[in-house]
């Protein structure tokens, strides 16, 4: 009978870390895959924003606030302020315009003005406090603009900003575990570090030579 082969502690340790790094590498890549595709694509569209034609479409709507709701915003002597629309009025505005009436509105003696920015577009609602006349405008700049605004986190809200933070952490783990895997395999792949150095040198040279 042959004696059992003993695995050297150094090789056993390396095998353990290889397994751990491979696990974290594929998990982080799976989490960040769709985000990476989105941000890579919008990186190109943002870099060529002047070349991507946009055809903004604007929709205007008018309506009159029902009398019971009009009484809730009757003019008063209060100074100009910023506060959200009352829930019942916000719900009415959303039904009439199809846009979410959230956020702080600007209240003056004669008018309530609510800005409605969103990814890929813009909008606003104005309500006359005397007559109840509502005027709204909604502008859409197309899906490329929408994706570009997602890339920048422009008018996307807190949930999307949290997603960007989590996505950034996943990308960081993906890159760092990839770097550590390169280190573990570098002994058998002599070109590893020259290629990594080239990846650092190219943007550094471009920044030094062409960006001032």
Automatic annotation (TrEMBL):
This is Membrane protein. InterPro entries: PepSY_TM-like_2 (IPR032307). The chain crosses the membrane at residues 159-181, 193-211. The keyword Transferase does not apply. It comes from the Bacteria. The keyword Transmembrane applies. Keywords: Membrane, Transmembrane, Transmembrane helix. Pfam families: PepSY_TM_like_2 (PF16357). Coiled coil: none annotated.
